[in-house]
C-alpha cells in the first residue's frame, strides 16, 4: 500500500523535530519474537491453543501452499487481493493460512504493516504471555510511551509519560481520521513530540511499538509499506487421501489446507477466499451471514472460491476425521469435500443482509451470485449485469493458463486488465521491471547488431558447407534450422518475459523480442523480410482488434475477431508458401551459396566482406 502525501509530510516534520529527541522502539526478546513463527499442528489444536491475538471479530482469510508450477503467480495474486481489501478499509483482519514450505521471504512480505504494527502476534494462548520482556535501557530522565490504533479510516492515539526522578506521570489521548495504521503510529509520536516541546523537554526517550516508523526515523527517510498487513498462520499440509482417484487433478493436491479456516475460533465470522478474486466494493455485510454461506455458480454445486463460515473446533476436527476416513469427494479437492459436508445448501434460503449491521444470522444460506461473479458472464455483454445481489466480487474459475495475472490473458480476456489495474494501484511491478529492462536492452542491441552486419552473418555458413553443398542431408538440415529459427522467434519470448508483468508492457516486449529474433533469421538465411514478419503484423493487428474498447457486446467482438482471422489467413498462407519457395531455391538450387560467394553482389564491400572474399580467393588458388 503506497504511503499518502500527508503521511510523507508528517514524516518530514517528524525528522525535523528529532534533532533534540531520541526515539527508540521497544523490542521483544528472542523468546517473544519466536512466536511469529509458531507452527500450527492440527493434531494439537484446541480452544486454548494457537490463536491469533486480534481486536476484530471478523476476518478475511486465504491460503498459500507450494508444489505447483505457478507458486509465484499465486503469491503475487494473494498479495494483490490482500492489498485491495486493505484499500477498501474492510473492518476485519486479514489472515493467510500458509503451509510450512512457503518461503519466509514471502511470509514476511505479507505480514503486518497496514494493520497496527506490534499487534497480532501468534501466541501460545489467548492470554498475554508472562515471559519477561527486555526493554531498551534508557539513558534519559523522561520516558514517553505512545501507541496509535487505526480502524475504518479513523485513528486513536494514547500516550503515557514517566519520569526517572519523580513519581509524576502524564497521559493524553487524541483521535481523528487518517489513511492507515502506519500514519496513526506516526501521529502518536508527533503528539508526544508536541507535548515534549511544550514542556521544554530535551532529555526524553519516546517508546513506540511501530518498528516501521522507528526504522524510517533511523534511516531519515519516509517509510515504505512493503508488507501487506496480513496475519500469517503457518500450518502443516493436510494429507489428501483422494490422490488415487481417477479424476484427481494434482493442482489440487494441497487444497485441503482450506479447512484450517474452521480453527480460527477467536473470530465470530470468517470469509474464506481464493486468490483469483477481484473486489469491486467492500463486502463486510457478509459477516452477518450464518454458520455457512456460499454462492452457486454452477446450478447444483456451490463454489468454494468465496464462502462465509463460523469457526468451530468441533467442525474442524470432524472434517479432519472425514479426511482420515476418506469421506465421499467427487473431485478429490476442497470443492467436492466441503460440498459433501454441506449437501443441503441448495435448499437453504437466500442471504439478505439485516438492516442492523450488528445482527448476525444463524443457519446456512445461499449467497447471491453478485458475490462470485464468474468472469464468463461479463464476456457476453462486456459489462456487469448480474441482477442477483450486489455486483461485488469477480472470480476467474477458468483455465489455469488464462488467469488474469498473466500478461497474455489480455486482450484475449478483457477482464485481465482490471486485475492488473488493481495490482498497479497496490503492489506495483517493481520486482519484474529489472528483468523487463534487461531483456528490452538485449533485444534492441540484437536489432542493432543484425542491422549493422546485414548480409554478412550468413557468410559464416559458407566455408563450412561450400564443399558439400549438394549433400541432401545438409540441405535438409539447413532448411529445418531456418524453419525452427522462425518458429523460435515467435515462441521463445513467451517463456522469457515475466509472466505477471502488466499486459501492455508484456505485449510490447513480446513484439520487440519477436522482431529482433526474426531479424536474425532474415539475415542469417537471406530470407525475404515481409513474409517472415507477416505473422508479426498479424499479431499486432489481432491485439488491436481484441482490445478495441467500443464493441457494443461480446457477440460483436467475437465476430470481429473471427472476421479478422479469416481475412488474415490468406496472407499467412501466402507468406508460408513464399518462405518455402525461398528456402527451396536457396538450398536446392545453390542460390544461397552463390549469393554468398558472388563477389559482384557488393560494389563496395565492408571489412568483413573483404576478409571473407580474401579467404575464398586464397583457398581457391591453393586448390588450383
From TrEMBL:
Keywords of this protein's UniProt record, alphabetized?
Answer: Glycosyltransferase, Manganese, Membrane, Signal, Transferase, Transmembrane, Transmembrane helix
Q: Which residues form the signal peptide?
A: 1-26
Q: Which terms does the record give in the GO molecular function aspect? A: glycosyltransferase activity; nucleic acid binding; RNA-DNA hybrid ribonuclease activity
Top-rank taxon of the source lineage equals Eukaryota
Q: Which InterPro entries match?
A: GNT1/Glycosyltrans_8, Nucleotide-diphossugar_trans, RNase_H-like_dom_plant, RNaseH-like_sf, RNaseH_domain
Q: Where are the transmembrane segments?
A: 433-452, 473-492, 504-526, 533-552, 558-579
Q: Which residues form the RNase H type-1 domain?
A: 170-225
PANTHER family cross-referenced by the UniProt entry: GLYCOGENIN SUBFAMILY MEMBER (PTHR11183)
Protein name stated in the entry: RNase H type-1 domain-containing protein
Its organism's taxonomic lineage begins at: Eukaryota, Viridiplantae, Streptophyta, Embryophyta, Tracheophyta
Amino acid at each position: 500500500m503506497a504511503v499518502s502525501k500527508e503521511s510523507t509530510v508528517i514524516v518530514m516534520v517528524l525528522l525535523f523535530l528529532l534533532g533534540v529527541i531520541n526515539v527508540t522502539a521497544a523490542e521483544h526478546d528472542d523468546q517473544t519474537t519466536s512466536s511469529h513463527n509458531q507452527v500450527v499442528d492440527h493434531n494439537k489444536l484446541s480452544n486454548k491453543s494457537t490463536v491469533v491475538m486480534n481486536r476484530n471479530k471478523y476476518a478475511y482469510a486465504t491460503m498459500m501452499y507450494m508444489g505447483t508450477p505457478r507458486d509465484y503467480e499465486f503469491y503475487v495474486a494473494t498479495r494483490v487481493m490482500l492489498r485491495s481489501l486493505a484499500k477498501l478499509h474492510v473492518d476485519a483482519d486479514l489472515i493467510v493460512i500458509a503451509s510450512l514450505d512457503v518461503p519466509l521471504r514471502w511470509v514476511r512480505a505479507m505480514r503486518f504493516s497496514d494493520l497496527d504494527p506490534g499487534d497480532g502476534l501468534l501466541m501460545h494462548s489467548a492470554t498475554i504471555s508472562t515471559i519477561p520482556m527486555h526493554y531498551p535501557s534508557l539513558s534519559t530522565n523522561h520516558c514517553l510511551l505512545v501507541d496509535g490504533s487505526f480502524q475504518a479510516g479513523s485513528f486513536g492515539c494514547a500516550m503515557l509519560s514517566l519520569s526517572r526522578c519523580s513519581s509524576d506521570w502524564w497521559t493524553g489521548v487524541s483521535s481523528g481520521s487518517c489513511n492507515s495504521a502506519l500514519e496513526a503510529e506516526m501521529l502518536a509520536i508527533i503528539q508526544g513530540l508536541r507535548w515534549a516541546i511544550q514542556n521544554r523537554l530535551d532529555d526524553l526517550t519516546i517508546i513506540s511499538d511501530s518498528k516501521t516508523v522507528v526504522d524510517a526515523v533511523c534511516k531519515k527517510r519516509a517509510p515504505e509499506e512493503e508488507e501487506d498487513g496480513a496475519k500469517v498462520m503457518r500450518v502443516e499440509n493436510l494429507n489428501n487421501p483422494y490422490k488415487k482417484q481417477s479424476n484427481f487433478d494434482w493442482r489440487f493436491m494441497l487444497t485441503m489446507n482450506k479447512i484450517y479456516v474452521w480453527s480460527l475460533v477467536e473470530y465470530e465470522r470468517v470469509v474464506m477466499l481464493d486468490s483469483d478474486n477481484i473486489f469491486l466494493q467492500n463486502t463486510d455485510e457478509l459477516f452477518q451471514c450464518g454458520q455457512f454461506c456460499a454462492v452457486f455458480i454452477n446450478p447444483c454445486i456451490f463454489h468454494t472460491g468465496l464462502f462465509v463460515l463460523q469457526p468451530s473446533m468441533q467442525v474442524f476436527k470432524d472434517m479432519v476425521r472425514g479426511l482420515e476416513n476418506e469421506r465421499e469427494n467427487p473431485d478429490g479437492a476442497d470443492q467436492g469435500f466441503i460440498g459433501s459436508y454441506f449437501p443441503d445448501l441448495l435448499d437453504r434460503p437466500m442471504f439478505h443482509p439485516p438492516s442492523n449491521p450488528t445482527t448476525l444470522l444463524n443457519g446456512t444460506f445461499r449467497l447471491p451470485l453478485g458475490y462470485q461473479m464468474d468472469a464468463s458472464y461479463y464476456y457476453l455483454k462486456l459489462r456487469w449485469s448480474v441482477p442477483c445481489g450486489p455486483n461485488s466480487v469477480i472470480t476467474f474459475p477458468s483455465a489455469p493458463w488464462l488467469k488474469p495475472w498473466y500478461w497474455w490473458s489480455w486482450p484475449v480476456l478483457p477482464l485481465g486488465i482490471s486485475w492488473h489495474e488493481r495490482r498497479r494501484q497496490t503492489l506495483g511491478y517493481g520486482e519484474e521491471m529489472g528483468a523487463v529492462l534487461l531483456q528490452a536492452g538485449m533485444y534492441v542491441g540484437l536489432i542493432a547488431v543484425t542491422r549493422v552486419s546485414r548480409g554478412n552473418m550468413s557468410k559464416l555458413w559458407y566455408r563450412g558447407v561450400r564443399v558439400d553443398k549438394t549433400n541432401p542431408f545438409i540441405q535438409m538440415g539447413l532448411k529445418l534450422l531456418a524453419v525452427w529459427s522462425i518458429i523460435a522467434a515467435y515462441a521463445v519470448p513467451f517463456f522469457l518475459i515475466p509472466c505477471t508483468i502488466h499486459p501492455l508492457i508484456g505485449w510490447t516486449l513480446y513484439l520487440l523480442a519477436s522482431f529482433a529474433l526474426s531479424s536474425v533469421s532474415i539475415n542469417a538465411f537471406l530470407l525475404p523480410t515481409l513474409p517472415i514478419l507477416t505473422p508479426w503484423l498479424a499479431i499486432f493487428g489481432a491485439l488491436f482488434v481484441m482490445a478495441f474498447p467500443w464493441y457494443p457486446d461480446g457477440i460483436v467482438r467475437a465476430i470481429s475477431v473471427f472476421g479478422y482471422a479469416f481475412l488474415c489467413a490468406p496472407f499467412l498462407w501466402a507468406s508460408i508458401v513464399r518462405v518455402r519457395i525461398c528456402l527451396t531455391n536457396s538450398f536446392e538450387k545453390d542460390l544461397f551459396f552463390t549469393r554468398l560467394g558472388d563477389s559482384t553482389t557488393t560494389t563496395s564491400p565492408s571489412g568483413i566482406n573483404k576478409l571473407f572474399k580474401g579467404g575464398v580467393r586464397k583457398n581457391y588458388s591453393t586448390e588450383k
